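Allow me, if you will, to draw on your knowledge of protein folds for a short while. I have a record of one protein: its chain in single-letter code and its fold written as discrete structure tokens. I should value your view on which stretches of the chain appear to form regular backbone elements. Thank you for your consideration; the sequence and its tokens are set out here:
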Amino acid sequence: MGLLDIFKKPSKAKNTNVDNMHYVTLQLNAKLQPLDRGDIYEDPIIEALEACGCGVVDGGGTGLQESGEVDFCDVAISLNSNSKENLECLLRIIDELAVPKGSFIKDENLEIPVGTLEGLALYVNGTDLPNEVYESCDINYVADKINELLGQSGKLYSHWQGPQDTALYFYGTSFAEMNEKMAGFLQEYPLCQKCRVEQIA
């Protein structure tokens, strides 16, 4: 898996002229499209940092695999200073938002693991099923139905349209629990035949 590109989303945060800003990166072990990354993480972090007055968000990026599928994403953050209080504030914000396992905060000198969520990728086969299946079934129904089945265990965060598969990315408290709750539906719904499930966090 190689990093092919970084898509940047402009930050909604206000510019600051503080001379002693401390720059850190929150690298998320999350397969999120840029708009989903912004809605789920960037925008809430912006609001939380502004509320506590400890820093701003400078933007975000998306790392891709050679296939074009998202590998990870990140959020660039400028703290007002390299103080213990500011770092602890950021860690509280991240903990409250809940990020996937395998994520971390890093700067030039440190790397702090963060994250409690587990991730499940459902790859729906887009080429090998009978044409009538694709004509009569709907990937949006798959997403909505699995969200309903998961309940409080997890939810759909993002998606990816590949050349052979459509990937739906779910994050929640337990991969095993999410997998178990959707298993019956995956066996029954025609569009989910020949699908595959992978743990991604």
